[in-house]
Design brief:
Elements (H helix, E strand, L loop, with lengths): L14 H9 L4 H22 L2 H17 L10 H20 L12 H9 L4 H19 L3 H11 L5 H8 L3 H18 L7
Length: about 200
């Protein structure tokens, strides 16, 4: 039996409520879940793939898999944790099948807002420095072992707790802590002259 809870106008639906509404036939609830987690899912996928197009493909693949298996979601973890597990697996699979590409997509530049930014105190040197830093971080993340990179990305870009990372990766919290420690140490060494992690 599915219980669908009524919401007050100012109260956003919880993930559980949206899933229950979807299971009861409300297709719009799935769109709300997608909008809630698409940015986080994209950040995670992009960190694994370092390519905008591949990251978007991985997010789409992840959401399609989540939709197809939503009836099997058993609430042993949060929906976010479950979804990011699927997206990170889709990212890793896509990365293996396509090979890692380290390119910056010209489509990612918002050219219409570039002109407006010039009149609003836009600093092109700062923008170049940020792009260089992003590329250096992406390259440094590529130097980590798969386990370290995945733990780091899920924790930092995905916003998952140690417990949630452990659930996604199906490892102990101690192993998560170890992988994050060694990932940070390696990143510090690789990026020592650029940032403090």
């Amino acid at each position: 039996m599915v219980v669908v809870t009524a919401l007050t106008p100012n109260q956003p639906a919880s993930d559980e409520q949206l899933i229950a509404r979807f299971r009861a036939g409300d297709r719009t609830s799935l769109e709300l879940l997608f909008h809630r987690y698409r940015d986080t899912a994209y950040r995670v996928a992009y960190r694994f793939l370092s390519n905008e197009s591949d990251a978007l493909d991985a997010v789409q693949e992840g959401f399609i898999k989540a939709l197809n298996h939503l009836d099997g979601f058993e609430h042993r973890s949060s929906f976010k944790t479950w979804l990011l597990r699927i997206v990170s697996n889709a990212s890793l699979d896509l990365g293996r099948s396509r090979g890692r590409r380290e390119t910056v997509s010209i489509e990612s530049v918002d050219w219409q807002n570039q002109d407006a930014a010039l009149t609003d105190g836009y600093d092109p040197i700062l923008d170049v420095e940020r792009t260089d830093l992003r590329q250096a971080l992406d390259k440094a993340l590529g130097e980590l072992s798969d386990g370290q990179r995945r733990a780091f990305v899920l924790h930092v870009d995905g916003g998952l707790s140690y417990r949630e990372v452990a659930d996604v990766m199906k490892i102990s919290i101690g192993t998560v802590m170890s992988r994050l420690f060694y990932a940070r140490q390696k990143l510090k060494g690789l990026l020592a002259n650029r940032i403090h992690i």
